[in-house]
Records
---
Amino acid sequence: MADHFQLRLVDSTMLAPTVRHMAFERADGQPLAFTPGQFLQIHFHYEDGTATKRSYSVGTVGDGTSPVQRIEIAVSYVEGGAATKLLGELPIGGEISASGPYGRFVLQTGDTNARYLLLATGTGVTPYRAMLPQIAELVKQGREVVLLYGARNETELLYGDEFEAFAQANPGFHFYGCLSRQQRGVPRPNDRPGHVQNVLAELAPSAERDIAYLCGNPNMVDAAFTALKDFGLPVMHIRREKYVSSR
């Protein structure tokens, strides 16, 4: 059974014009044990009293194996959204109800592939941020990890500077910012125009080498899933998590 607990807000900053980074601690002072890639559910009620919940991936960068005190999530603004109102108006020190962790969108110890292809759009990049300590270990072992992250423009590349700094410090990890609507004023070497699924051909995915993770907008996930199958990847080597905005 998943654990149920209260979360207390300890920090909140805007990552992008419509995305907020929020940091919580458990109100009971206990750390959160989770596997990078898992998510929590926030529980609350609509104005008519109906119970509802929303899911948010844990984005905390720990050591990849130990429980964490600070529980970080990224929250997208949804016009008229009940969760947007709840979390947007939550003051520092305010509390919300949560449960978890949940999910199997995690790196698996039994994998023997030479390369991981990680694809994301929007807040779908959050679980990969939590995986960075594990990715560091993978590249030390000689594995290659490629992150293709799609956004409309550079202001929406959440944690982009962190991923670029990580790539510089960890040869074997490659970060591509895929900008679909507006390119940077000063392009960077690993920028790519267009959608993430359209950059796959450059990487020449293969069944013998690759396992892919897809997280974010359902349209991207479906398009990338189809493209990867066309490149010959078996379904068991394509792991998916769709982020659907709810009001």
---
Amino acid sequence: MEEIKQLWLDFFQNESDDVPVWWTRKQASLKDREAEIVRLKVDGKIFQRLHYDNSTNFDYTLHLRYVIKQKGQFHVEEQLIPYRFRYEDGVVKNHQGIERKTATNRKGIEQELKTRIQEGERFAYDRLAAVQYAERWWDSYNPEYRVFDVDCTNYVSQCLRAGGAPMWGVPVRERGWWYQTDNWSFSWAVAHSLRWYLSGSNQGLKGKEMERADQLIPGDVICYDFQGDGRWDHNTIVVAKDAYGMPLVNAHTDNSRNRYWSYEDSTAWTPEINYKFFRIGDD
């Protein structure tokens, strides 16, 4: 991994011609926010290698740790980005990011909207506990839960559960919000389903839709429709606010910490992106 680490350090120092789109967008986002990266640490971990006759294919996780300065304040942002390359005759070839799939279940949420309960039930949401959980597990996986190939909503649901959100609806997967060892509701693990669940639930875990991102506070949730096509692809949890009062979020797939809420530095981002902002609980 030392060769790959040096490759990235050379890139960040010299700004090569082959600039990843996510880095270009990140720089633009930082400029718009009047923020700058004052320190950068690069690391990586190989999670798969395949040997052929005269070459080896490597899949690895690029770990970036930024110290960001904004209006005299500092915060640390971290990202884990999956990459792969082929090492052939001592040369790195085909070095590129690994695309992630998205998960959705329209049928499940359509059924849920028909069966949602109208009688309210209050619960005390412990935002600090939710954020502490988000910080503890942003770059790893709690062994008490299943790990999904697309893990963003599972991770957010775990954070909400750590904050005291009550589960209900077992064993109907199209109903409520719940998790068991060998089964779970669609709303627990599917981004599209959690978005619509938060819009409609009047029992247990509830979300109040807010108009703007700056109205959110730590422990709240942001949903993302990257293509603007009505299919909700991703969820994050707010863990902090930047110097201008805008949310910083944690997420899985790809794993990130204290990332700026708008996700403009994501390869999935498009100009058609839609967001939903949810205040969690009854406050």
